[in-house]
Structure formats: structure tokens, C-alpha cells
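quick one before i forget lol
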Amino acid sequence: MQASSYRYFPTTKLITIALVTSLACAMSKDARPAPGAEELPPAGPPLTTAEPQALTTVASSTPVGSKTASSTASTIGRDSAAKDPPVTVPSVKGRTKKDSLALVKAVSAGLNNPDWPVKTAQQLPGSILPGRRIVAFYGNPLSKKMGILGELPPDQMLAKFDKEIAAWQKADPRTPVQPALHLIAVVAQGAPGRDGKYRLRMTDSLIEKVASWAATKNALVFLDVQVGHSTVQEELPRLVPFLKRPNFHLGIDPEFSMKLRNVGKEEGATRERSKPGARIGTMDASDVNFAIGLLSDIVKQNNLPPKVLVVHRFTRNMLTNAKQIKLDPRVQVVIDMDGWGQPWLKYDSYRAYVEAEPVQFTGFKLFYHNDTKKGDPILTPSEVLLLNPKPHYIQYQ
């Protein structure tokens, strides 16, 4: 089947008609889904040791349903006269009409939201975004369950990494791909540990190991933080020596930020924190602003190019008061759509939780296992690039 193309028109109605028509032609109703990948095993008992030996049982191996992309998206935006060049809709085996309609809504919402693209100060010299697209492998070398970074032996992982980089470069030749390895440097866990913080800090030697792999690919290193019962204010200062390096950047994960909440009826309510993985956590704009401020100071004090800050999100409550995030030209903020599921779920979540609340740049996460649980092929670079705004940060787990 030949891929079909269309051109956007200046009204929402015409955009939707054109997208529906072309997608309906391109996506076969009778296409059989490809066989699903092997499902991730459930999390085992949590770690309790302070010095990691193997992270085969950490909380972030994803409790069933906890990370699934949400389908509560609602249509946003208003009519816009924006015109885009023709877009080619790829014919991918296994896509459904529901996937196509979700993509239509996501593209339309992005085009018609007047806050996209976000208006910011001119990017400083050395800025990575938007001139390059970051493609990252995520996880932890001590665990096969937490992502591709640790699932395969290093040589095999890096060979697979090369193939993904090449695929993204082919899909968008105009935007150079910047490789990155995204290490979970602070791991949330189900046991309190010695200090009761429900998180495990990775050793400097492990961070150096990932940095050495990154060096062979001229890749960036992202240090991801899952705070558990700790806070970004407590966890980030320890990572400053690494963040002073020009190729080191930061990620923060609200999913495992377990803040105090009321439990019980109003009169007898108590304040407590859930264990990481028992429910989806949350961060506030104030947490993001602290991370921005810390990174900005590092850039200024060490005469470095701007840093990138990735904030994971796949529900509305994961990031509260997003409009109060204060941008800084020394820090480029990416809101990363971090949910897993079928394509329509991922498109819906991108629309509801990333497009609906513009911050600066957008990201999109792809799961080798969880996205394919029901037989759907993993989204291709060409399919992800149909979104508007187009994600400038891509993460594989």
C-alpha cells in the first residue's frame, strides 16, 4: 500500500476531515497486529541494602497499570490559520481506526493551541534544542527490568542504540540526532532503607560506567531522580559534581515522588506518604523551579552551555501548577510523555498532558515491551513525528 499525504487547511474542520480521510486510507482495517513482545515480569520484593548489587526488584519495574497512558484527554485549542507542509502518513501494519482518530485529535490540538510554539528568549549558544533531537536509551545497568539500558549486555545495547539513532535520522534528515544515555541515578524502592527515604542512590562508580559507554557514542548522560519519600531539594545537590560536566543533564520523575497526603475522612484524616509504586506520585512547579534554578546556577558559575531538564508526565496530577514553571535561558525544559500502552492511549496522553499545558519542549517515551503487550507494533519515528509540536526528546525503555 502506498503512503498517502495531505496538506493542512486553515480551519479545524478541514484539518480533521483531511486527516481522517488520509489516515483511513493509509491504515488497513484488516491488518493483523504483530505478535506482542514478552511481558515484563512483576516486581519482586524491594531492595533494602544501601550498596546496590543488582536492581532486579526495584519499584520502578512498573506495577501493573501504574504507568499506562491515560485516555481522559479532551479536545483543546481554537481555530488557527497555521499552515504546515504536506505530511506523509506511513502505512504501518497493526494500526486501528481508534489509533488514527487519536492521532487526528492530537495533531489538531497541537496545531490549534496558540501557545505552541512556546515563546521564549533566544536560545543561548551551545543549546541542544531545538536544533537537534535527543534520542535516549533509559534504565539502569543493574536491572534488566528497568529499561533497555540494563536489559542487554553493553555491546548489544549500544548496537541496538545505533540502529535507533539511524532510524530517527532517516525519518527527519533535517534535524541532527543527539544520542543520550538516561540513567536512573536515584531509584525509588518499596522498602524504607536506613534513612526511611524509600530510595536508593547509585554509586559514583556506576555513573562513571554509564558515562564511559556514552563517550564511545559521543552521547549525553542524563541522571534521572526518583525521590521516593525524599525531595528534589535533598537529592539534586549530591549530583552537582556530575552536572558540572558539559555533557551531563538531568531528569526528574514525579511518578515516584510520594508527598504527604490526607488519608481517611475529613475529621479523622491523617497525613501520610504511600510507598513508591503503590500509587502515582506528584511534583509541583516549585520542584521543577528548584531544579531549573540549580541547573542555571551550574551553567552560570561554570561557563557551560545550557542544560536540559526532562520532567516525566503521563497524568494531570503528576505535575501541578505547570503554568508557574519559570523558564530560564540556561535550562531547556522538556515535558516527556511517559505513559505506556496502545498507540491511541499514547496519543491521547500527549494531547491531554503535554500539548494542553505548554511549558517549552516536548518529549515522547517508547516502551519496547509494555507498548507492545496487546500486539501493537511499537510506534515508528515517522508516526511520532506526525505529532505537532514534534517531540525533540525521544526516550526508549
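fyi The chain is about 25% helix and 20% strand.
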